[in-house]
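Good morning C.,

I know you're traveling, so I'll keep this short. The sequence:
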Amino acid sequence: MKRSLLLVVLASLLLAACTPSESAIQTAIAQTQTAEAELNRKIQAAIAQTQKAAYTLVPTYTPTFEYKSIPSIRSTKTAVPPDPKSNTQPTAFPIPPTVSHPVLDITIKVVNQCAEQHTVIFNGPVRLKYIVAPGETKEWQGAKGTYTWTVDGIVDGTQELFVSVWTLTLCY
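The tokens, ready to paste straight into the viewer:
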């Protein structure tokens, strides 16, 4: 009986010696709270970085080739000299391309893969304004040249556009 009592007391002492002290518990709690605060700070920084990089610009160069045959013009009427009494002016030719009338020879697309609507404005040889709903793609004809674009009033980029189709993807 004395031996079993002695054995029980010895086992109790060993178990008491294995439990952590109050100061060790407090130290572990403090370290856990510090690590949790650091993890939350890193998560918030990653979220801010992701929101800052929400507009990823990926120009997609898709050359398009279109072959058209030029129709021949054949007149079935004979030419009649103009009437000197007539006051009509000859037909004006189309206005040649100038700075105020650039040639619209490229397509600029805006693809909105975001969850919200965005307004994109291109300023360059021509000014193009896109209001693009979520999941929508809009395209306008533009002229080759250097453009600066803004997304919701924030300047996002400047680039020379010279390919036949140029695409700006939001929230890629």
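Safe travels,
E.
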